[in-house]
Design goal:
By secondary structure, this protein is mostly helical. 64% of the residues lie in helices and 3% in strands. It has one domain. Helix 9 packs across helix 16 (353-366). The termini are far apart.
């Protein structure tokens, strides 16, 4: 059995345990399972895309991509249609630019095919390795703040404010109260080094949610709407492509934007989670990064064929890493959970965002550790690093944090008379990023 696990998932019996890997996969799944509810909700704005079909496509694309990650890359990362990319698909490409969802799916397919080529030629790895170590450390920390911010929002602990953009929510009632209780429970379990403490905290918090009412509805925050349901067919949205417009200017713009956002969102996520998992060597290079990127590319192609938006590596994978996941078995467990979710959607949807939020907050804290490796006295390094960290949560975009970080790094080095120390790759990236902001 151990030989099979080693060959299939990169499992090392001397370092890994089956229980820890499976618990880590469950943890990752629970922290990212919201996409199964959110994605159909977003796509419901488009006529002709039934919510049930989108739900099934979302789960299937996550399963396919995550299995590739498990067996090929052998890393504890899970994938699913990306947040932000789905909103760009629906609200920008379709509702603002006026294109059909078939046009948008075609753009996603082309993007996935381009990613396969870029991965096979190792262009993505080349770009990844060209990023300075200070920015790589900043990216990991920035993602930590970003996912903690997502957790705070999901729990209602941070809410909109017309005067200050964001403010503290109601922590004494409803989801805010449940999240605070969950945070105390999860922190306690983590401090006591309880195995699977993050997952256990999610489950305990969800159960407590059955006894706390939402002030807005008067109903319990956690409630079951059933147990079993057969998945809807993807036939209405699968393989619905618009081939006659693949050479148009609009297609070029949309494909490039999808490509750009996905490349650097995935790159930032992989850097951050890989650092947390210990997959980064002393030079800052990530082990088997080309295999990780290939899983992302194949998942995107599969998602487009099934009828959903770009599939990407999820930053919530860091929750599973925080629970001890280090091999492809973690990813396999997450994929298995997505498969079960196809039939048990009423059960997993009963776990509220307030129950998963504490795990995101705790893991976000854990991911801040790389900032200690940044030389804060060297302003050429520390200013771009700081901008990278702070802009990810404030712009609500991993890619924007990376882009501004790279641009500022090149500009500050050039202005301080150190232009010769800037690699050609960083010059090219900085110029491309500036053009991106000018023209897109």
């Amino acid at each position: 059995m151990s030989n099979f696990l080693t060959k299939a998932f990169g499992f090392d019996p001397a370092k890994n345990t089956v229980r820890t890997e499976i618990v880590a996969g469950l943890t990752t799944f629970l922290t990212m399972a919201y996409i199964l509810a959110v994605n159909p909700s977003i796509f419901s704005a488009l006529p002709g895309m039934p919510g049930g079909s989108v739900f099934t496509a979302t789960a299937l694309s996550a399963i396919i991509a995550t299995l590739v990650m498990a067996f090929w890359a052998k890393k504890p990362f899970a994938l699913a249609p990306g947040m932000g990319l789905n909103a760009f698909f629906v609200f920008t490409v379709c509702l603002t630019m006026g294109h059909s969802w078939q046009f948008a799916l075609t753009a996603v397919l082309i993007e996935g095919l381009i990613f396969v080529v870029l991965t096979l030629t190792k262009v993505r790895v080349w770009i990844l390795n060209a990023i300075p170590m200070s920015l790589k450390n900043a990216i990991g920390a920035g993602i930590g703040l970003f996912i903690a911010f997502i957790g705070l929002q999901n729990a209602g602990l941070i809410v909109d404010s017309p005067s200050t953009l964001v403010t503290l929510g109601d922590v004494c009632h409803g989801t805010g109260l449940l999240a605070v209780i969950g945070l105390v429970i999860s922190c306690t379990l983590v401090m006591l080094h309880v195995r699977g403490g993050i997952l256990l905290g999610i489950l305990i918090t969800a159960v407590i949610g059955m006894f706390i009412k939402d002030p807005a509805t008067g109903e319990a925050i956690t409630h079951f709407g059933g147990i079993l349901s057969m998945p809807d067919s993807v036939a209405p949205i699968a393989f619905q492509f618009e081939w006659h417009r693949i050479l148009s200017w609009d297609m070029l713009v949309v494909v490039f934007t999808f490509l750009f956002i996905d490349m650097f969102d995935t790159m930032g996520t992989v850097i951050g989670v890989a650092q947390k998992a210990g997959f980064v060597d002393e030079k800052g290079n990530i082990q088997d990064s080309e295999k990780v990127f290939m899983a992302d590319a194949i998942g995107t192609i599969a998602g487009a064929c099934l009828g959903t938006s770009t599939t990407t590596t999820y930053v919530e994978s860091s929750a599973g890493v925080g629970a001890g996941g280090r091999t492809g078995l973690t990813a396999f467990a997450a994929a298995a959970c997505f498969a079960l979710a196809l039939f048990f959607s009423p059960v997993f949807l009963a776990i509220p965002g307030a129950a998963t939020a504490p795990s995101l907050i705790i893991v976000g804290m854990m991911m801040m550790q790389p900032v200690t490796r940044i030389d804060w006295s060297n302003y050429r390094e520390s200013i771009p690093a700081f901008l990278t960290v702070i802009l990810m949560p404030l712009s609500y975009s991993i890619s924007d944090g990376i882009l501004i970080g790279v641009i500022s790094y090149v500009v500050l080095y050039a202005l301080s008379g150190k232009a010769k120390e800037i690699t050609p790759t960083m010059w090219v990236l900085a110029i491309l990023f500036i053009l991106r902001y000018i023209f897109i």
